[in-house]
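Sharing in case it's useful to others searching the archive later.

Someone asked me privately for the predicted structure of GDP-mannose pyrophosphatase, so I'm posting the question and my answer publicly. Question first, with the sequence:
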Amino acid sequence: MDLHLKETQVDTEVAYEGHFLKVQRDTIQLPDGQRAKREYIKHPGAVVILPLMDDGKVLLERQFRYPLHDVFIEFPAGKIDPNEDPLDCAKRELQEETGYMASEWQFVCTIHNAIAYSDEHLDIFLARGLTPGESKLDDGEFLETFTATVPEMLAWVREGKITDVKTVIGTFWLEKMASGQWKA
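And my answer, the predicted structure tokens:
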């Protein structure tokens, strides 16, 4: 079981606790017996929705992301609330952010987007049978939605227009699923 690689927690403390994130500082024992420190962000997990329209286009969002001071193209996504089922979260986030509801849901995969400094995981879901409605954005949340084709998205990934990791991975999944190479 890879014991020769395993690090073991000796002590732990909260280095910072904010409204959304917590930074943990652990003392660990390395496989060779030495001790070291590890700091990492504790995250409750999130969901990502790949909303596929009946015409084959994909519903996307444009949203300003403060840490990088830029607008990014992304799939709808959101944080899982305490004790919330990930699929329920995906349904809630799709409706809140885009106004759309889906009649078909399929789990795609789980990804870990920042394994060196966070325990965050993202559960990706494919949503089909979309019907429009009214969005219910959170206070302080501003975004716009639009549609694009998977080939357009692939070109944007190649050109560096899409750099958000969950959107890059979701785009590759959509391409593989559309070609029949991968099944979710």
